[in-house]
Amino acid sequence: MQATKRHLFFAVTLIIALLLAACTPQSQTPAPTSAPAPTSAPAPTSAPAPTTAPTGGVVSATPGLDINMILLPKFLGIAVFDQAYEGAKEAHAELGNKGNLIFTGPTAENSVAGQIETLTNAATQGVKAVMLSNNAGDQIAAAAQAAQAAGVKVVTWDSPIPSAQGESVFVAQVDFNETGRVMADMALSILGPQGGEFAILSASPDAANQNAWIAAMKQVLTEPKYANLKLVDTVYGNDQSEESYNQALALVDKYPNLKLIMAPTTVGIAAAAKAMTDEGLCDKVKVSGLGLPSEMVSYTLSGCAPQFALWSFKDLGYLTYHLTYLLASGALQGVEGERFNAGRMGTYTIEKDPTRPNGLRVLMGPFTVYTAENVNQ
Amino acid sequence: MKAKLRRLLSWEGLLLAILALVVVVNANLAPAYLSLNNQINLFQLSIEKIIVALVMAFIIINGEIDLSVASVMGLAACIVAVLFDRGVPMEVAIVAALLAGALCGAFNGFWVAYIGLPSLAVTLAGMIGFRGVARILIEDRSISGFPAWFTALGQQPLIGPFPFSLILFALLFTLALIVLQYSGVGRLVYVIGHNAAVARYSGIDVPRLKLGLFIASGFVAALAGVLLAARLGAVRGNTADGFELDIITMVLLGGVSIFGGTGNLAGVGLSILVILNLRNGMSLLNVTGNVQTGVVGMLLILSVLLPNLAQMARERWQRRAVQRKEVQAGVETSVSS
Amino acid sequence: MQGSPVLEMRDISRRFGSTQALAGVSLRLYPGEVHALLGENGAGKSTLIKIMTGVHQPDSGQILLDGRPVRISSTLEAQRLGIAAIYQEPLMYPDLNVAENIFIAHAGRGPLVNWGKMYREAEAILAQLDVRLDVRQPARGLSVAAQQTVEIAKALSLQVRVLIMDEPTAALSAHEVEQLFAIVRRLRAQGVAILFISHRLEEVFEIADRITVFRDGRLISSAPRADVTVEQAIRDMAGRSVEQLFPRRHTVRDETLVQVRDLGRQGAFHGVSFDVRAGEVLGFAGLVGARRTDVGLALFGIAPADRGTITIAGQPVRIAHPRQAMRHGIAYVSEDRRGLGLSLPMSIAANITLPTLRRYLNPLGLLRRPAEMATAEEFRRRLAIRAPSVEVEVGKLSGGNQQKVMLSKWLNTRPRLLILDEPTRGIDVGAKAEVHQMIDDLAAEGIAIILISSDLPEVLAMSDRVLVMREGRQMAIFDRHEATQERVLAAAMGQRDAA
Amino acid sequence: MHTWRQRIRPEQIRELSLIGLIVIALLIFGWQIENFLSARTFNRITSSVAIVGMVAIGQTLVVLTRNIDLSVGSIVGFTAYFVGSQLAANPGLPPVMAVVLAVLTGGTLGLVNGLIVAYGRVPAIITTLGTLAIYRMLLINYANARTITVDSLPSWVVELSRQTLFAIGDFAVRPLFAITIVAVIGFQFVLAYTVFGRRLYAIGSNPEAARFAGLPAQRTVLAAFVLCGMLAGMAGFLFLARFGNITAVAGQGIELESVAAVVVGGVNTFGGSGTVLGALLGAFLIDLLGQGLLRWLGISEFWRDALLGLLILLAVASDSVILGWLRRVWAAPALRAEVSNEG
């Protein structure tokens, strides 16, 4: 009940803010359109990108505007999304946005419908932008297009809209092809050149980012270097600890020669590592993938999960916020080649997304690969 | 009869009062709430669930339950998508999906009506199994790129500002209301729901009616699944996952007894309005999904609990008044004797 | 009489909404006395019982136990005070076995169940009743009489001082009634006060020491049995004199309507053969467990026969489903009004048209309400169903009126053969006379009637012939003039009749 | 007259048909899957049945009274998270206290359900459908997106799921499973030999009669819900020990798993009949089918659910057919006995 009251309060504030916003004149000059952007390398640093926009400048945000924004995770209750919110809050304060930053999300079991609902209602509410970690695949495209048509900027992060319809730009945590390579490299370094059987424990069959990573990894595995790595199966734990745990054990039972479980999901990797530890299988079967250091530290130190990778979700939230603020204020148009300043993280460029034919992306990067040496930091 | 009528009136009266409250609060807190656009969105966002809720009301009044509806919705959507993907004309794909839905319903109905297994068990198995069939068909793919007329059907207004599915819902609601409240079948749904043995001893073919209801449930769920595919423009294996609890909640809040035999569509209609408006209002106020679900849960409990408590308090008060009299009477008699 | 009353109800009143169920009623129960309480349904008997057993609280008045005022706040409290009741409708736990049903409500047997002891005690109590039931058998599937027996055992197992018996004999046949009366007399000798309620006047006059009559929530008369006549009791109950209890004007026609040969169903009954002629009342007599109802259910297709032949109007027929039976003009009026016969929350009209619903549908399948109402109104008039309108819920009607609704429902199918299973069980004397009148009228119209009843005087008085069954076998068929109580009973108990 | 037919009733040996189905499933999987009939399979199934089985005991108690508890999934999740966070904050908390805390937390949530159902007269399905959402909402607000991690827990909790209590060959009995087995035996006894247990059956068998006869129906139903909550709380603790990483979605779906176990285990959903042993066997059968399908090499991940649904249906159907047959076998001589008793 307390929470409801708080939200009612928010809402009243929001309405007042909207009224004020209506009176504020828009002072931004739109940036010119279209620019070639033959970027190829990830741009994790603040180094200037190879191409410059026709204006030649890097767009910076005008602080203190009044832009209401929603940060919409896949669902609530997962640590990494909260970390992204921390980053977004940091940027929100930094830019002195007079509007609200709203962190809201559906329940896990109603994720698809809930995300669509929030997006649809965003236009009604007069929200200027939604930052979406998409859990609905292309099913959300229609709602996103409708929102865009009603003047709401839709920026995706963490997980994009596969068809890119209805999406302005995707803030990619890492290059999706790169993810495939990083996973293949980790597998190679754990299994050694003689290789062996391994299996993938993914989130759900419908998770667009995981599916893209797995596809990328399969592509990488065709290279001669990885010839000895044999992918035997892909199973799904639906981002639930218990299901992932059981699936990991079933993999071991099903494939007696299994040497590695690769879990490109923070829930899955922790559950798999726990399962192997509990059953005393760590000597035989290693675990790797994408994981949170705080959840993985003991398994990494025990040698059960010698290597895993991740990026900073806080930075992802921060960067996404900056981009979205600029787009919503009209400072950026959301076209290929535009460059912008993202506060403490430096300068980024909007580029073609190599993994999605019609998509634009901003690439954050880089990966941090965690091992026993750095997992405690 | 009069007492029952009063009770029914008070149930629907209660829902009406809640609805009025929700509308007034929403209108005051969220100015955009009353806009026509939002009012249509509010239906459109849950249109598939409320369509299935109509047939679920029949099933529950009949004393059964169908937990498999969401899986049938998903399966129908997957069938449409996969067939379309393989180059089957969209019209044929839709017909195939609807037939498959009816077939799922017939499967459930057969075990319930002719073998006599509890519907909870059968449709629980169906919930897992039909979703599994959808998975077999679509695996980890996502299929989109449907013909424009199909997605327009789910997304664009058809007549004035009203989209096809909303018009369809209005028609189906009217039809369901007439069938349940004014037809022979509706009469039998109630009689069987209250006491199937009475119906059997009256020469009514109970299994056939139950089978028919389950087929209708499967068919309507498939129809809703196809509409969902049209609205979303893309289909995955988990399409419509978890809808069954929302659907059952709508029916129960509408005053339909889980034990069958009582409830009506006016209540279900009001309950749909209450839930949709409440959720929309909270959503406009950025209340998170978990809190929304929690609030609907509280409403569900309180809508039954509060009238019960009031009733009990009234009874206790009356009894206490009687006891006071009794005690006085007792004193008098003991004095006189 | 015998010293002071054990339980005294003083000036008890109780209202339900606008109905004054009891208005200043006083009643004294003495130890060692069987006190019969008579009254039509709605006279306030049930309310009084419920107040005695703590289900309801009186609005005013006093209850004295051994001369001290008590408050009976719950059934448990009543049990503690030594007041127990056997109700009209046996309240069984179908999943529990017989022994548990007897002892489940017992307080103070400790937190653990001693099964062995419980079985022994249950067997002892049943032996005391001279009934041999398997105490380990689940109550599901017990006949009504067996359930009643368990109820009595349950009451006996409590050390009762006041035993209320609300129509305990309704489901029992003559032999069981005799057994029961033996027990009642034994309890009386032990000093238990018994409040005995029954609609069977001959039983009341056999067992009661004192007879009290209620009408409309008031006490009309109360006197020792010797000072009351049957006619007077009926007049007090009805507030008018009831004409003939067993009317008989119909004549049997010559055409044989139904011919049943060697009918049987595995595990239920076998070798049943009889003819029923148009306008004839064929009585089915027998003890409980004689499987008379099963024959009815076989003819109606609920539990179809697997042996033998049924011929209707000269045509051999197969009846595997009630619809087929109805097509052949057979109707079956169940003994279990509330469980099988009527949809209680539905209106009178809806119940009457239930088996014939197709007739009241328009081509679109919608109900033709006016036609339905007209039919219902017609039956309300014809059978004198006392209800403010045909839209009243059936559950709100008295037993007698419910019985009439059931009859209407089946008469509306225009049957040629009407099977009536215990049509007068649990209904008051006025309604009983009306039902008997109806049976006679229907026979006079040429309908063949099978009358299954445990009320032996009723069977004997109403039937043209009496078929006696025992343990699923047909024992004898008596013509009206040779069917005496003794011969029927003897046949029912297994002695082949010489005649 | 006391034949074995009288002493042993179909209802009492109905678990046999479940055991028969389990044996058939074991044979088929053992024939199809290499190394299936091994200690490893046993350990897998026992470990995962431990949690669902514990919840299914409580679910049985509630279902026996003709009610249902759909909120158990949220209770398991809430308790696992709550106890986990308490243990993380106070690593010195003695094990007994942690268990007591879990049981009390679950019991409190169960108490709320029970009060609303028994004294507020709200149908159980409405109440627990509501509290399913409400408890989850409380959990998510309480958790605030933090995750309980294995590293934050005291080692004894994490070790619990790794230890072996005793082993027969390779067949290891682990503490979690042992706790559940003890609970099943305990409640089997409670249901068969205590007045409280028999009252649960009586109330579910005929609620109206129970009220009329003056059984403390409200108190008994309340107790069933409280016990169900306590057992779900205990399961929450087991959940914490087994999975270590607890997020706000923990335990989601356990309500349906427990209902499935109860239904497959032959507990009548209309109350009055069934045993906790049956529910455990039901959980065991479902898990066995799941495990078998997971490991069946020829079967793709995507076929699993379809087959699982079909197998559950077949299990329920064949169980019902077998029981019906047993009843008929029993009914025939019983009928003769009853009839010959008359007169």
Plain-language structure description:
The complex is a heterotetramer of chains A (377), B (337), C (499) and D (343). By secondary structure, chain A is of the alpha/beta class. In chain A, 39% of the residues lie in helices and 17% in strands. Chain A has 2 domains: 58-174 and 313-365, Response regulator (Rossmann fold), CATH 3.40.50; 176-310, Response regulator (Rossmann fold, 3-Layer(aba) Sandwich). Chain A has helices spanning 2-23, 79-95, 111-125, 141-149, 176-191, 208-221, 241-254, 266-278, 293-302, 313-329, and strands at 69-72, 101-103, 129-132, 153-157, 169-172, 196-202, 229-236, 258-263, 286-289, 308-310, 339-341, 347-349, 351-352, 360-363, 368-370. Chain A has a 7-stranded mixed β-sheet, with helices on both faces. In chain A, strand 13 and strand 14 form a beta hairpin. Chain A is elongated and about 60 Å long. Chain B is globular, with a radius of gyration of 23 Å. In chain B, a hairpin with a 2-residue loop joins strand 2 and strand 3 (162-163). In chain B, helix 3 (47-61) runs antiparallel to helix 11 (206-232), helix 5 packs antiparallel against helix 11 (206-232) and helix 12 (243-253) crosses helix 13. By secondary structure, chain C is an alpha/beta fold. Helices cover 33% and strands 25% of the residues of chain C. Chain C has a 6-stranded mixed β-sheet with strand order 6-7-8-3-9-10, with helices on both faces. A 6-stranded mixed β-sheet of chain C has the order 16-17-18-13-19-20, sandwiched between helices. In chain C, helix 6 (174-189) links the parallel strand 7 and strand 8. Chain D has a two-stranded antiparallel sheet. In chain D, strand 1 (166-168) and strand 2 (171-173) form a beta hairpin. Chain D is globular. Chains in contact: A-B, A-D, B-C, B-D, C-D.
User: Could you list the spans of chain D in which at least 5 consecutive residues all have pLDDT below 50?
Assistant: 334-343
By secondary-structure content and strand pairing, the structural class of chain D works out as: mainly alpha
CA-to-CA gap between the ends of chain D?
Answer: 17 Å
Distance between the termini of chain C: 49 Å
CATH class of chain D: Mainly Alpha
Average pLDDT level of chain D? 87
Radius of gyration of CA atoms of chain C, rounded to a whole number: 23 Å
Shape of chain C: globular
Model regions low in confidence, pLDDT < 50 over at least 5 residues of chain C: none
| Radius of gyration of chain D, whole Å | 21 Å
Q: What characterizes the major β-sheet of chain C?
A: 6 strands, mixed
Largest interface: A-B, 46 and 47 residues
Oligomer classification: heterotetramer
In spatial order, strands of the major sheet of chain C run 6-7-8-3-9-10
Beta-strand level of the residues of chain D, as a percent range?
Answer: under 5%
Approximate helicity band of chain C: 25-40%
Largest sheet, spatial ordering of strands of chain D:
1-2
Do you know the CATH topology of chain D? Answer: ABC transporter involved in vitamin B12 uptake, BtuC
Quick check: average pLDDT of chain C?
A: 87
